[in-house]
């Protein structure tokens, strides 16, 4: 039988999820609720949960705050140590072997002074996590998943309103698709858009001017790397775009669009059309036009068709639920770059 743990009067928070922007904001609210910020700063201890021992945690948790009502103990990544990974047998062994360790940490957080507040922060955590199961019933648990689609658009509209600006529904939808759920990136883009529009409503045209250029340049570079069989470069660019919050669906759309434009430009070149005529036909600004014409000249049609067909196949895999978006794109890059010239 599992022995219950007495947490006494200690205040315990568990904040977890992939949206570390909202998680950090909520942690700030906790700090503001604990009194004078300057005094709290001298009574705050932050630990790397991957290296922390139960003894160290117990020692700092029992320490009485200095000239303040509360001591704040923040532990980053401790719950992640108890996430089961690997094969079913490895998961079972890890859960059995890690049970006592999880209990040691739970007991280190019990029977501590009421003046101590403990906050555990982590990424995505499963309900089967052994330490989480021991602590969750005694903690205030807040989950921060990545915002998507309607919820992300609502967050955008709220954030823009807080900055004294407004945005059209079409622009909010475009911004959500273009930037994705990384709210650190999104917050910065919203600030740039608010400054750029100077108080008027933000429209889709403003987003195309302000937000898309950097990602568009990386998309051009990733197409080059894939077509040149440069797996390392392509994988690194893909990882950077995903880390910056670009959604897999958006990246797939941008890659497909660019390859389609290159094929069209190649055909128009074969018809001896001028640059101005090609620009008019494709509807491109000067920079994208120049990059598209360069790619049309460099790569054979068969290689472009091969990439385009694989992109369409990947799109079907994602829509039918065969692969998650990020994994599907990584598999696409690996497959295309592994093929022989």
Keywords:
alpha/beta; Rossmann fold; Helicase, Ruva Protein, domain 3; Zinc Finger, Delta Prime, domain 3; 3 domains; five-stranded parallel beta sheet; 60% helix
Question: In total, how many beta strands?
Answer: 5
Structural domains: how many: 3
Shape: elongated
Can you identify the CATH superfamily of the largest domain? P-loop containing nucleotide triphosphate hydrolases
Q: Give the SSE order as H and E letters.
A: EHHEHEHEHEHHHHHHHHHHH
- Helix percentage: 55-70%
The CATH class of the largest domain turns out to be: Alpha Beta
The biggest sheet amounts to: 5 strands, parallel
For the residues shown, what is the average pLDDT? Answer: 83
Which structural class is indicated by helix and strand composition? alpha/beta
Could you please say which CATH topology of the largest domain applies here?
Answer: Rossmann fold
Rg computed from alpha carbons, rounded to a whole number of angstroms: 26 Å
β-strand percent reads 5-15%
Distance between the termini: 63 Å
CATH architecture of the largest domain: 3-Layer(aba) Sandwich
Helices, by number, come to: 16
Strand order of the largest sheet: 2-3-4-1-5
pLDDT < 50 runs, ≥5 residues? 1-9, 92-98
